[in-house]
Amino acid sequence: MARIAFISLAILAIAVTSLVPCSMAETLVVGDGLGWLVPPGGDLAYATWAAINTFTVGDVLLFNFTTGQQDVARVTKEAYLTCNSTNPISLKTTGPANFTLNTTGEYFFISTMDAHCPLGQRLAIYVTAPGPHHAPHPHHPPAAPSPVSPRAPVTYTVGDGLGWLVPPGGPLAYMTWAYNKTFIVEDTLAFNFVDGLQDVALVTKEAYETCNTNSTIQVWSTSPVKILLNSTGDYFFTSTYPRHCILGQQLAIRVVSSSGTTDHGSAPTSSIAHPPSSSSTSSPVTEGPVAGSPLPASSAPSRVLAGFFITFLSIFIAVF
Ligand SMILES: *[C@@H]1O[C@H](CO)[C@@H](O)[C@H](O)[C@H]1NC(C)=O
Ligand SMILES: *[C@@H]1O[C@H](CO)[C@@H](O)[C@H](O)[C@H]1NC(C)=O
Ligand SMILES: *[C@@H]1O[C@H](CO)[C@@H](O)[C@H](O)[C@H]1NC(C)=O
Ligand SMILES: *[C@@H]1O[C@H](CO)[C@@H](O)[C@H](O)[C@H]1NC(C)=O
Ligand SMILES: *[C@@H]1O[C@H](CO)[C@@H](O)[C@H](O)[C@H]1NC(C)=O
Ligand SMILES: *[C@@H]1O[C@H](CO)[C@@H](O)[C@H](O)[C@H]1NC(C)=O
Ligand SMILES: *[C@@H]1O[C@H](CO)[C@@H](O)[C@H](O)[C@H]1NC(C)=O
């Protein structure tokens, strides 16, 4: 596959220029294997994809879709939040479509097709400048040391004052919270919640995306919960309480190494360290130093609620 070829090339390039910080432009396929469509899992599909990738000026977003069945429009933040497809900044109706990320800042994309955007076919990303202080792309294999600026471990209180609950503003609340935060090995996540009304479940990417909490990696039910991020990789948190996940009590983060060296010397002994992933679209663990890039901050838009989604599922199936 192209990615494998690319990764081989990247390894070669990194080997050759191991002392030069790597900031190669890259083509990112939006949604990976899912492509660009009304995501079966609703809003969170592209939010999750955005959260576990980083975007650098020069990168290309490739929206892979079937001409006539989908389209992609770059829009303002306001239009993104309200799914307003009048007057997009630009519109591409022929798939696959590329967008070159020319500048730093927030980019918002939606589908202008009927009901596609409210059903979750929308993407918000934050693009950072390339440069020596920016880490290689997470799709790259571990690189030579090129550290995220060293700092003392930080304890992050999830949601800050909001705590850990079904967020009133909908599912982007914790994505917004994680935006602009860099999670480095040895940092700690603190979850504050009301015992008996909430819990914290560490789950796989698949469980996170489908909100199936029948099986979890680990569950904590007594607040406060302090979780030491003792390994690089992607971590997915939700709640096992009925409907909490689907209503937006979800947090996905990527934890990176502070040294840039691989962590083989401290191989994880606990299942917490490497949440297994059954999805081929998730690169399992990235040990290279990368900046976390959760979603751009936004006032969380009102969510497509589960009932709404189920109501429209039949329409969605009919459309496809
Ligand atoms: C786009 O989607 C098609 C059909 O699913 C797939 O065959 C193709 O490999 C995808 N292209 C990319 C670049 O992912
Ligand atoms: C959608 O955006 C257009 C201009 O871009 C604006 O005139 C219109 O009022 C907006 N519609 C809604 C429902 O907000
Ligand atoms: C989009 O980018 C990919 C990878 O850079 C390239 O192979 C493809 O030809 C581009 N497609 C268009 C329509 O420019
Ligand atoms: C980036 O710049 C190119 C060339 O100037 C332009 O065609 C393209 O539309 C720009 N991309 C975006 C997302 O604005
Ligand atoms: C996120 O970081 C960027 C660049 O460091 C900054 O311009 C932007 O204002 C920040 N946004 C928030 C919500 O902190
Ligand atoms: C989860 O478990 C319940 C009860 O055992 C079962 O009814 C349900 O189908 C399971 N859900 C999934 C998605 O496997
Ligand atoms: C990582 O942290 C978890 C709990 O925070 C702990 O159970 C586990 O033993 C730790 N693993 C390592 C390798 O330190």
Would you write up a description of this structure?
Residues 26-129, 154-257 form the Phytocyanin domain. This is Phytocyanin domain-containing protein. InterPro entries: Cupredoxin, Phytocyanin-like, Phytocyanin_dom. The protein has 320 residues and is α/β, with parallel strands linked by helices. Helices cover 18% and strands 20% of the residues. The protein has six helices and 16 strands. The chain has helices at 2-16, 44-51, 77-82, 172-178, 205-210, 306-319; strands spanning 27-29, 55-56, 60-63, 72-75, 90-92, 97-100, 105-110, 122-128, 155-157, 183-184, 188-191, 200-203, 218-220, 225-228, 233-238, 251-256. It binds 2-acetamido-2-deoxy-beta-D-glucopyranose (7 copies). One 2-acetamido-2-deoxy-beta-D-glucopyranose (NAG) binds next to loops.
Question: In short, what is this structure?
Answer:
This protein is an alpha/beta fold and 320 residues long. 18% of the residues lie in helices and 20% in strands. It binds 2-acetamido-2-deoxy-beta-D-glucopyranose (7 copies).
SSE inventory with pairings:
Layout (H helix, E strand, L loop, with lengths): L1 H15 L10 E3 L14 H8 L3 E2 L3 E4 L8 E4 L1 H6 L7 E3 L4 E4 L4 E6 L11 E7 L26 E3 L14 H7 L4 E2 L3 E4 L8 E4 L1 H6 L7 E3 L4 E4 L4 E6 L12 E6 L49 H14 L1
Parallel strand pairs: 1-3, 2-8, 9-11, 10-16
Antiparallel strand pairs: 3-6, 4-5, 4-7, 7-8, 11-14, 12-13, 12-15, 15-16
The chain binds 2-acetamido-2-deoxy-beta-D-glucopyranose (NAG) (7 copies).
